[in-house]
Design goal:
Elements: H1 22-32, E1 38-39, H2 54-62, H3 77-89, E2 100-103, H4 105-115, E3 123-128, H5 132-140, E4 144-149, H6 160-164, E5 171-177, H7 189-201, E6 205-209, E7 233-239, E8 252-258, H8 264-276, H9 282-285, H10 288-293, H11 298-302, H12 307-321, E9 325-326, E10 335-340, H13 350-361, E11 363-364, E12 366-367, E13 378-382, H14 387-408
Parallel strand pairs: 1-11, 3-4, 3-5, 5-6, 6-7
Antiparallel strand pairs: 2-8, 7-8, 9-10, 10-13, 12-13
């Protein structure tokens, strides 16, 4: 008698999250076999020795007695009040604790805010490349992700006119990721203002993913979208994971501004969804007030001489040394979206490359196609490792690409993926 087959949901058919997908599973297999893998596929500060500020740890520890029960479904009052004060300090008016929702990281809030908004077939404008959770969450919540291009020749900054041409009567929302993941692009003020006006003209909810808001390099300007968006609903999403190096605390927030009165029913729906999951992680919420009101140590990391600044500089230098690579210098965040020269390597495929880099050189990167782009000649690395580690990583990358160049000339052996039948079909 055949063993019963348990079928997954059809709703997952078009859902992808390759950053933690098949390549990452293969990396774990290799580690269990004793290989040391340099994993640059995920922006996880703790994995590279970057600690959460001690004041945040102490704030959480000192309030553990207050964290043993459920809290309000939108979060504890001191955390929400701290978010309001940050918004006010940035020039955002009309925000109270009633318009702030705490969640288990921004990831959960992306899902909840879209679930409260979308009906079957509703469209959401999502950048390409994007952080793939946005596309996945739109799909899981019965919507359709319409990708607007952020082209490499435009420094990965969107063109507002091109974006507006994608708006239809079914469009409900516009997603911005600034500073951007995966590209590190930092959007100029004029572009941000044009996108705010676009959202207002078409009554779109503007979701502004600002999780990297203080990770800025070389004097760049970060522009909070809520300071520019007034005549529609703006949802600012941020959290402790990146700027405060506290990924494991799982604390994010969504702050609503703009036309909140017109969105009262939507906010009530979001509160209902928040209630259904009872509350988000309470201990981590006690670190929010200290984080937002205390010393912003991230600036020491991104300033010249700081860890993130110097690692970014090493990536720029390594790309400049390479015969095969190109890079738009990232203005923010903790990533580099590296391009490969198609003229030198016309048969380059990002997924094939990522697999072979892992198998042969024991380096794990995220292929560009993971970020919902139509091309296959980019990959993403994080600049969290120290400069010496990144120098070694790019030496291994260049070594493999050198073999590819020899392969183009007809002298290299067969690609290693052919030796792993069925693993990456």
């Amino acid at each position: 008698m055949a063993e019963p087959y348990v079928r997954p949901s059809e709703g997952l058919r078009h859902v992808r999250y390759e950053i933690r997908g098949r390549l990452a599973r293969r990396a774990h297999e290799l580690e269990r076999l004793g290989y040391e893998i340099l994993s640059l596929n995920i922006g996880n500060p703790r994995a590279f020795g970057l600690r959460t500020p001690e004041t945040m740890r102490l704030a959480m520890i000192e309030n553990l007695a207050e964290a043993e029960g459920y809290c309000h479904q939108q979060g504890i009052f001191p955390a929400r009040e701290a978010v309001v004060m940050q918004q006010q300090a940035r020039g955002v008016g009309g925000v109270s604790v009633e318009e702030v929702f705490l969640g288990n990281g921004v990831s959960e809030l992306i899902d909840l805010t879209l679930r409260a908004l979308l009906n079957d077939g509703d469209e959401v404008l999502v950048p390409s490349p994007d952080y793939p959770l946005w596309t996945a969450a739109v799909t899981l919540n019965r919507g359709r992700a319409v990708h607007y291009p952020c082209r490499v020749e435009n420094r990965f900054v969107p063109d507002p006119q091109e974006l507006e041409s994608l708006v239809t009567p079914r469009t409900r929302a516009l997603v911005l990721i600034n500073p951007n993941n995966p590209t590190g692009a930092l959007y100029p003020r004029a572009v941000c203002a044009a996108l705010a006006r676009l959202a207002e003209r078409h009554a779109l909810v503007l979701f502004s993913d600002e999780i990297y808001d203080q990770m800025i390099y070389d004097g760049g300007e970060f522009v909070p979208m809520a300071t520019l968006t007034h005549d529609t609903l703006c949802c600012t999403l941020a959290g402790l994971s990146k700027v405060y190096r506290a990924c494991g605390y799982r604390v994010g927030w969504a702050a609503f501004s703009g036309r909140t009165r017109a969105a009262a029913d939507y906010l009530h729906a979001l509160e209902l969804l928040s209630s259904l999951r009872l509350c988000s992680n309470v201990p981590g919420q006690w670190a929010v007030q200290t984080a937002l009101g205390g010393h912003q140590s991230v600036h020491e990391l991104t300033a010249p001489g700081g860890r993130l600044h110097e690692s970014r500089a090493e990536i720029l230098a390594a790309v400049a040394r390479s015969r095969f690579l190109s890079l738009q210098p990232p203005g923010g965040a903790m990533y580099a979206f590296v391009g490969v020269d198609r003229e030198r390597l016309p048969r380059f495929d990002d997924q094939q490359f990522a697999l072979e880099l892992l198998e042969q050189k024991h380096v794990l990167v995220a292929p560009g196609v993971s970020f919902n782009v139509p091309y296959r000649d980019h990959f993403r690395v994080t600049n969290l490792p120290d400069a010496a580690t990144l120098r070694e990583v790019f030496a291994r990358i260049d070594s493999l690409l050198g073999r590819y160049a020899a392969d183009e000339a007809g002298s290299a052996p067969a690609r290693v993926s052919n030796l792993i039948p069925g693993r990456f079909s």
